[in-house]
TrEMBL record:
Signal peptide: none annotated. Pfam families: Metallophos (PF00149). PANTHER family: METALLO PHOSPHOESTERASE RELATED, METALLOPHOSPHOESTERASE 1. Its cofactor is Mn(2+). It comes from Pomatorhinus ruficollis (streak-breasted scimitar babbler). This is Metallophosphoesterase 1. Belongs to the metallophosphoesterase superfamily. MPPE1 family.
Length: 398
């Protein structure tokens, strides 16, 4: 009888240690699950599809069923084998995958546009490295048959103009079914895909082909406009397209001097805003920009490349939205655009992803609390109550 009691007393400390260890494991697991999984649901759940503005531009036929729900993101920059550290890859790709999959599940978009620089090293990657990057992209951005994915070429995908080759362009086009000057029409809405890297204007083979397709498409679209003179011989044999004014999707922004006029919490940092943009590198040239505006007379332009947000008006009436980077490697506060679009109108809303600094703050606070709990458990850190009690007992003894 005494032996069993003695064994029970000896086992008490062991049970307490195991119980404490189990509590620590539960605490650490809860923090990890929240910061690496649940936080994306908490943040993206707060995003709402914008309502399309009514009024004279909204016809009775344009009901909620005819509104196209589009997600627009840019500059994912999947790291490659040359510059990408394995830990950096693991962290950034997990973040983007969870954000994208959570957004698809919660928001149920009809279509997703990625505005270039999908890969970071596509401009110089070998066939084997390219295949590995493509495999990882397919895992991260997998989607159901009910959501369409459209990708535009960026300079990191096919190289800057001086690095661009027919091989790289064909490799990208084959993967994403992308062609500069390609028209995508969904629910009567016209989207024009532009290879902005090929808008150099120097007559290179890729540039000539790209511009020829853009000119031919602009002719079709202009002949399909409601105010077009269809009796004109130039439009008599042209295939008529939906009359909706097009939306341009491209990687480079149209020409602007700098980001000095850009505002918002995800615009360029103050020290970078006044740095002049270099034509054909940071933005399209003035000549190429005027060509696109003249050819298509778009109602909206969506671009990426700068990694920061900006909204500008061209010719005083045509808005361009520069979409910030989707990767935490480029920003502390990545985001994507949610667009509700009809053939005659559109409304855009930004959806911010979790701030990385806030996630680190949660981890630091949890780590500090964990240290306090461990020290208190091993009695290296005396709880305030017991500390006060000891002081009182010592005072009485004196």
């Amino acid at each position: 009888m005494l032996g069993s009691s003695s064994t029970t007393v000896k086992n008490l400390p062991l049970k307490r240690r195991l119980c404490f260890l189990l509590k620590l494991v539960c605490f650490v697991s809860s923090v990890l699950i929240f910061c690496e999984f649940l936080i994306y649901y908490v943040v993206i759940f707060q995003c709402r599809w914008p309502d399309v503005k009514g009024g004279v531009h909204m016809s009775e036929k344009e009901t909620s069923a005819s509104v196209l729900k589009a997600i627009i993101l840019a500059d994912t920059h999947l790291l490659g084998e040359i510059k990408g550290h394995w830990l950096d890859k693991l962290r950034r790709e997990w973040q983007m995958e969870r954000s994208f999959q959570t957004a698809l599940w919660l928001l149920q978009p009809d279509i997703v546009f990625i505005l270039g620089d999908v890969f970071d090293e596509g401009k110089w990657s070998s066939p084997q490295a390219w295949a590995d990057d493509v495999r990882r992209f397919g895992k991260m951005f997998k989607h159901s048959v009910f959501t369409e994915l459209v990708v535009v070429a960026g300079n990191h995908d096919i190289g800057f103009h001086y690095e661009m080759t027919t091989y790289k362009v064909n490799r990208f086009e084959k993967l994403f079914n992308f062609t500069s000057g390609k028209l995508i029409t969904r629910k009567g809405i016209n989207f024009v895909l532009v290879n902005s890297v090929a808008m150099e204007g120097d007559g290179c083979a890729v540039c000539r082909t790209s511009e020829a397709k853009l000119v031919a498409l602009s002719h079709k679209l202009n002949c399909s406009r409601p105010k077009a003179n269809h009796s004109n011989k130039r439009c008599s044999d042209v295939e008529k397209l939906p009359a909706s004014e097009p939306i341009l999707l491209q990687h480079y922004p149209l020409y602007r001097k700098s980001d000095a006029e850009c505002t918002g919490e995800d615009s360029a940092p103050p020290e970078e805003k006044n740095i002049p943009f270099k034509e054909k590198y940071d933005v399209l040239s003035q000549e190429a920009s005027q060509k696109l505006l003249w050819w298509f007379q778009p109602r909206l332009i969506l671009s990426g490349h700068t990694h920061s947000a900006c909204e500008v008006l061209h010719a005083g009436k045509i808005p361009e939205i520069s979409v910030p980077s989707f990767s935490w490697r480029n920003r502390n506060n990545p985001s994507f655009i949610m667009g509700s679009i009809t053939p005659t109108d559109f409304s855009l809303q930004k959806c911010f992803l979790p701030f990385e600094s806030r996630i680190f703050t949660i981890y630091c606070a949890a780590g500090a609390l964990l240290v306090i709990l461990v020290l208190a458990h091993v009695q290296l850190l005396t709880p305030p109550f017991y500390f006060a009690q000891r002081l009182i007992s010592k005072h009485k003894a004196v």
